[in-house]
Write a structure and sequence with these properties.
- The chain folds into two domains: 44 residues; 210 residues, no CATH class.
- 19% of the residues lie in helices and 38% in strands.
- Strand 12 and strand 13 form a beta hairpin.
- It is globular and about 90 Å long.
């Protein structure tokens, strides 16, 4: 017959394995070569190197663009032998003065071999392996009362923004291998819900050399006369590795085995 001491030992082992598994969650995360430390005081901050954007001028126009991520949590060596790039699109739903509202937005992130991406080649931003999909989160702009996924304040004109123009929005992680680590629901949307990221950006008209006019072809650099930068801020969702879950399960299995043996012994003694 198993004594209380044995049961206690089994429980202690299970708890110890659980504690050990929890501690492994703080190890650096690596998804397709993109790695970051969730224990960083800046977690989770994803910043772009550069963004190229198309021009919009009317409701119904599609804003599209592309760029490359330059740092995660302040570390610019976050991608081992790879580039982390992205494309995005939004639709213009409202223009009122210098305020522009967008909806139906999404970002798609890709990883590719280091040096594969070129800012002069828009198609190179989407030539890699899908890493994450972020979809626009609808919320209400407390300043204007408008509802949308992205809000921009434009100086100059909508089609020709000048210095000081910027935008903000919210996004949800909805796909890709990095999604489990990004789906944190850590950003309150002001109406009882939660998004995964805040998006902040700044932009102005700055066509690339050799682009006297805007091209209608999205594969052409001259389709993107606007330059900008942006950042995503949220929190990492700590996800245990399969081996970690297995160790925790092993501890619980030991506890279950001891409990089962104790019950069988009790039945044999006529005390069940």
């Amino acid at each position: 017959m198993l004594k209380k001491k044995s049961i206690g030992l089994a429980l202690a082992c299970a708890l110890a394995l659980g504690a050990w598994s929890g501690s492994t969650l703080a190890t650096p995360i690596n998804v397709n070569g993109v790695h970051w430390n969730s224990s960083s005081p800046f977690d989770l901050t994803i910043q772009s190197l550069n963004i190229r954007e198309s021009s919009v001028s009317a409701v119904g126009d599609t804003l599209m663009g592309y760029g490359q991520i330059g740092s995660i949590n302040g570390n610019n060596s976050f991608c081992s032998g790879c580039d982390l790039t992205f494309t995005f699109h939004y639709n213009v739903s409202k223009i009122a003065g210098n305020q522009v509202v967008f909806d139906m937005g999404a970002f798609q992130f890709y990883t590719s071999a280091a040096g594969s991406f070129s800012f002069a080649n828009p198609t190179s931003a989407s030539g890699g392996t899908p890493w994450a999909t972020l979809t626009g989160h609808t919320f209400t702009n407390s300043g204007t009362g408008d509802t949308g996924q992205l809000f921009a304040t434009v100086f100059g004109t909508t089609s020709n923004p000048t210095n000081g123009s910027g935008g903000f929005g919210m996004l949800d992680a909805t796909g890709g291998p990095a999604m489990p680590y990004l789906d944190s629901n850590s950003v309150a949307d002001g109406k009882g819900g939660f998004a995964d990221f805040n998006l902040a950006s700044s932009f102005l008209t700055f066509p690339a050399d050799g682009c006297p006019t805007t091209s209608a072809d999205p594969a052409n650099l001259c389709h993107y006369p606007i330059e900008g930068n942006g950042s995503l801020t949220g929190k990492t969702m700590k996800v245990p590795e399969p081996g970690t879950v297995g160790m925790l399960g092993l501890g619980l299995a030991f506890l279950g085995l001891f409990t089962w043996r104790r019950r069988k012994d009790a039945e044999a003694d006529g005390r069940a």
